[in-house]
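If it is no trouble, can you show me the amino acids of a protein and the C-alpha cells describing how it folds?
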Amino acid sequence: MNEFKKYSKNENTITDEDLAFRLAGKMINEAVICLEEGVLDNPVDGDIGAVFGLGFPPFHGGPFRFVDTYGASIVNKMEELERKYGSRFRPSKLLREKAKSKERFHRD
C-alpha cells in the first residue's frame, strides 16, 4: 500500500481501507455495468470471470457476491468517493437500484 500512497495527492489523509476500496470499487462497478449493458449474461459469469480472469480476490467470491455480502454500504462508500475524487466513482444505475431495493444478485 505504501507504494500506492507515494503517488497519491492526499498522502496524509488516505487510509489503507480507502485505497483498497478505490481499487476494488472500480472493478465492482464496471462488472455491474457489464451486466447492465448485456456484456455479461448473469452475475455468476461475472464472478467466475473476475476471479479467474482478472484476479478478483477469490475469498470474496467475485464482484457480484461481494455486493451481495456488503449491500448498500458499497453504494454509500462509492458516493463518498465520488464526492472526494469525482464522477469516475459514481455507482452504476443497477448498483444503486439493487442497494435501494435490497435485492441481491444471487438468489442463495
Observations:
- The mean pLDDT is 88.
- The first helix runs from residue 2 to 6.
- The chain has one domain: 15-101.
